[in-house]
From TrEMBL:
It comes from Streptomyces iconiensis. Its cofactor is FMN. This is Lactate 2-monooxygenase. Belongs to the FMN-dependent alpha-hydroxy acid dehydrogenase family. The lineage of its organism: Bacteria, Bacillati, Actinomycetota, Actinomycetes, Kitasatosporales. Residues 11-383 form the FMN hydroxy acid dehydrogenase domain. Keywords: Oxidoreductase. The keyword Transferase does not apply. The keyword Amino-acid biosynthesis does not apply. It comes from the Bacteria. Pfam families: FMN_dh.
């Protein structure tokens, strides 16, 4: 109704509703460094392209005369009720893209009841984002796992007290990959933006500095880089997180069935099958291609560990394909970051509403009332 009524009034959307064209149109709103930070990927971009190409190789097989008029997209993921199986992926240093950064994203997500995942590299503090998100709004916290246990415990404690319910531990970024677009800019936008990232406001982090980051940013960055790089993490360290986090724990960046099995055996609550949007290992397997094997491996454990998915989701049809192959929900990254570039909070909302509407329409037109109905049999697959 809204779309047709706007048409009658001669109103058009604020910017494109074609999610595959969002990047190109966001380019007009960003300087080269900021655009490179969002759009960039590792190495030659092979994995980034493979992510999209895998979606093209999988096709929905619509069913007719099923009466899919009344649809219900609601679901619950790791105890968090959701209006649709869509979560905002952690995206760091959003102030590079828009002055209001994570605050704008938090408001947009909250207005739609969607869950936001706040990055450890957020340009606004845990407490500021919680306030922008508002009481009762669903929020998860993403951890870049520092090798200083006091700082780690402090980050988790702050997140918990600020109402973040689920911990998403990113495993695939213990150092940044070879990212030519960022390297060609000497990571300038990133380094300028990172000075306000969450660790810099953390009391345990600041306790190790002679002067606060506001007075000596160089020293703060030199403490931060080794603390969040090359950390000596192994499966045996997971109990540390359990001791410091009493909610669900999710491991993000799983691409091998054996790692998924280990996570299930370790009692982890969920995983995100992800290659970080092709930003870490150039030439890594497409995330969608990794998903079926992982879903089978997890099924065999009988653990009930929940599987989430990201990397390459652009359209409603993409969401349905990931769900059909075993994901319970998906995370989206670049699309909402491009929305942020276009118009802050309104821009993020425009992109997310478009994705939800597209998802709803495509679900119905495929002959289903609920995403839970989808199975691999609803897909055709070109090897
Ligand atoms: C990311 N991603 C990411 N992941 C994470 O765990 N912590 C972070 O701080 C960031 N930061 C970040 C910045 C930018 C600009 C992008 C594009 C991505 C990865 C993100 O959570 C997600 O895995 C991918 O973005 C998913 O792929 P798509 O949806 O961008 O194709």
């Amino acid at each position: 109704n809204e779309i047709y009524l706007h048409g009658l009034e001669g109103r058009v959307p604020p910017f494109t509703t074609d999610a595959t064209a969002l990047g190109a149109s966001a380019r007009d709103h960003l300087d080269a460094g900021a655009f490179g930070y969002v759009a960039g990927s590792a190495g030659s971009g092979a994995t980034h392209r493979a992510n999209r190409e895998a979606f093209d190789r999988h096709r929905l097989v619509p069913r007719m005369l099923t009466d899919a008029t009344d649809r219900d997209l609601r679901t619950t993921v790791l105890g968090t009720p959701m209006p649709a199986p869509v979560v905002l992926a952690p995206v760091g240093v959003q102030s590079i893209v828009h002055r209001e950064g994570e605050l704008a994203t938090a408001r947009a997500a909250a207005s739609l009841g969607l869950t936001m995942t706040l990055s450890t590299a957020s340009s606004y503090t845990t407490e500021q984002v919680a306030e922008a998100s508002g009481p009762g709004s669903p929020r998860w916290f993403q951890l870049y796992w520092p090798n200083d246990d006091d700082v780690c415990a402090s980050l988790l404690d702050r997140a918990r007290r600020a109402g973040f319910t689920t911990l998403v531990v990113t495993l695939d970024t213990w150092t940044l990959a070879w990212r030519p677009r960022d390297l060609d800019q000497s990571y300038l936008p990133f380094i300028r933006g990172v000075g306000t990232a969450i660790p810099f406001s953390d009391p345990a982090f600041r306790a190790g500095l002679a002067k606060p980051p506001e007075e000596d940013l160089d020293a703060a960055v030199l403490r931060w880089v080794p603390m969040f790089t090359g950390t000596d993490k192994s499966w045996s360290r997971l109990p540390f997180l359990r001791r410091h986090w009493d909610g669900p724990i999710v491991l993000k960046g799983i691409q091998h069935p054996d790692d998924a099995r280990r996570a299930a055996e370790a009692g982890i609550d969920g995983i995100v099958v992800s290659n970080h949007g092709g930003r870490q290992v150039d030439g890594a397997v497409a995330s969608l291609d990794a998903l079926p094997g992982i879903a089978r491996a997890v099924e065999r454990t009988g653990s009930g560990m929940e599987i989430l998915f990201d990397s390459g989701i652009r359209t409603g049809s993409d969401v349905l394909k990931a769900l059909a192959l075993g994901a319970r929900a998906v995370l989206v990254g670049r699309p909402f970051a491009y929305g942020l570039a276009h118009g802050g909070e309104d821009g993020v909302r425009h992109v997310l509403r478009g994705l939800l509407a597209d998802l709803d329409l495509t679900l119905g037109l495929s002959g289903h009332r609920s995403p839970a109905e989808l199975t691999p049999d609803d897909l055709w697959h070109r090897p």
